[in-house]
Amino acid sequence: xxxxxxxxxxxxxxxxxxxxxxxxSLVDVAVDREEITVVGAIPATESVKExxxxxREQRIEVAREAEELYRRKVAWAVQAGDDRxxxxxxxxxxxxxxxxxxxxxxxTLVAGGVARSRADALAWCVRLVGxxxxxxxxxxxxxxxxxxxxxxxxxxxxxxxxxxDTTDSQKSGSE
Length: 175
Hints:
Elements lengths: L3 H14 L7 E7 L3 E7 L6 H23 L2 E8 L2 E5 L12 H12 L6 H15 L1 H20 L3 H18 L1
Parallel strand pairs: 2-3
Antiparallel strand pairs: 1-2, 3-4
């Protein structure tokens, strides 16, 4: 997880690198361990297909630079009104261990036609939780960012151990 300051720096980096005619405006830059997703607004008169074709080379150039610098893949999305279309993005496998009652939930979703597989059912559950607990998740992310800030402002542990080594040697020398 990155801090809000790091997130803002990342957003600024993309805003500075993207040519002015790529997006009408930069809507969001989201990041996790594997991927950076850049979302921008496109004109109402332009289709997603037209946008992708028109900006492909520019986006590839910026993505290559970002991938080398940040060691994450770059995904792209467009916002047209209330619709958000994500393209060129990762689908990352996540390993988990579930007990029988949890597997039964997934199997019920598969049997009911809500999902094609347990993996799809699990992804559906994650999306549902994310949608219904967005405010709580935002509060949790903010709290984690604050914890990272406090840790970063704290004492350097390596300095403390060196100081204690010096104190120990001084004590033993005076005995």
